Amino acid sequence: MITQKMKYALKALLTLADEAASAHPEALTIEVIAKRSGAPKRFLEHILLEIRNDGIVGSTRGRSGGYHLMMSPEAVSIPHLLRLIDGPIAPLPCLSRSAYQRCEDCSDEGTCRIRKVFADVFWSYLVLIESLTLADLLRAGLPAELE
Q1: What are the structural domains of the chain?
Q2: How far is CA 71 from CA 11, 16, 47, 68, 86, in A?
Q3: Contact (CB, 8 A) for 14 and 37
Q4: Tell me, what's the pLDDT at 141?
Q5: Does residue 143 register a pLDDT over 60?
Q6: Are 114 and 91 in contact (CB under 8 A)?
């Protein structure tokens, strides 16, 4: 399950991607992003800072300042965002690629039936999610004839 924080991050990125695709794209303030996305401003400040530090969005100071998408929607990886915002996505610490930890109560990973079953499910999930990008989310809201 993705966290509410991740949902807010996705909503903000979708808002920035929509703006980038408009006829006259502009940097958007946190207030505008909050209003358009329906995400609370107080959460967006921290979330956008994390995403900016990762290079997905940029920010400009001043009167016409705000946030803008730095990457194309096709280049924004959803699993990368999940890991950035929510941390490891594996259901068990012993299955995580980026934050592997041996389970405290496990004597042998090779024969652990819990690990085996969840590994099979998790790898199937990864095959599906690893290819998702922000562009896929943008297309999800379009009528079929516009995709």
Answers
A1: 4-69 (1.10.10.10), 78-131 (no CATH)
A2: 16, 11, 17, 9, 21
A3: yes
A4: 66
A5: no
A6: no
